[in-house]
Amino acid sequence: MKLTYINAISSLCDHTRDEDINLVGQLLGSDYRLDNNYMTATLGIEGPELIKDVLYLKHAYNETGLYTETKLANKISQLDKRRRNEFIDLMLKKMLSLKGRRIAIFSVSYKRNVLNTTRSPAISICKSLLKKDTRLRIYDPLLNEARIMQLIGNPTRMTLFDNPVATATAGRVCFWRP
């Protein structure tokens, strides 16, 4: 996948200002967000920055007539959205039904120790779970109740806890962001 990306970016370099792909490759390689930590499966692209890069590349490819590369960027966006739905499908497969289940959620933000909830998989997963008639038990040490309710909605089927042990005890399934 990384080879496909660098080749697509090489095409963009060739079609724009004739940028040096070797220099661009070095810059990309020095980006801490692209190290081996990102070779671990997740619930999709998280946070505000990486998705901006994908959207920018999609626009740049399209503007320069690199339509195959545009399709690649579009596919990345589609796969990202599908990934979160696959998680819900897996839960359904393992549990047969989610109706009435109590599910513990540990942290609503997109990564540990941050207040930023931009593109947090927990939010979209919580909304999907609520549509399946579940009851959520949520613990987030950084976000207040008003913010969580604003992000997820449906306060009648959510209970917020102020400690992780009570949250885990109240749930039957736990969703934890390491």
Automatic annotation (TrEMBL):
UDP-glucose/GDP-mannose dehydrogenase dimerisation domain location: 1-72
GO molecular function: NAD binding; UDP-glucose 6-dehydrogenase activity
Any one of the GO BP annotations: glycosaminoglycan biosynthetic process
Alphabetized Pfam families for the sequence: UDPG_MGDP_dh, UDPG_MGDP_dh_C
Pathway: Nucleotide-sugar biosynthesis; UDP-alpha-D-glucuronate biosynthesis; UDP-alpha-D-glucuronate from UDP-alpha-D-glucose: step 1/1
InterPro entries referenced in this protein's UniProt entry, alphabetically: 6-PGluconate_DH-like_C_sf, UDP-Glc/GDP-Man_DH_C, UDP-Glc/GDP-Man_DH_C_sf, UDP-Glc/GDP-Man_DH_dimer, UDPglc_DH_euk
UDP-glucose/GDP-mannose dehydrogenase C-terminal domain: residues covered: 104-159
EC number: 1.1.1.22
SUPFAM superfamilies with a match to the protein in the record: 6-phosphogluconate dehydrogenase C-terminal domain-like (SSF48179), UDP-glucose/GDP-mannose dehydrogenase C-terminal domain (SSF52413)
Catalytic reaction annotation: UDP-alpha-D-glucose + 2 NAD(+) + H2O = UDP-alpha-D-glucuronate + 2 NADH + 3 H(+)
EC class: oxidoreductase
GO cellular component entries: nucleus
Identification of the protein by name: UDP-glucose 6-dehydrogenase
Species in which this protein is naturally found: Rubus argutus
Organism classification: Eukaryota, Viridiplantae, Streptophyta, Embryophyta, Tracheophyta
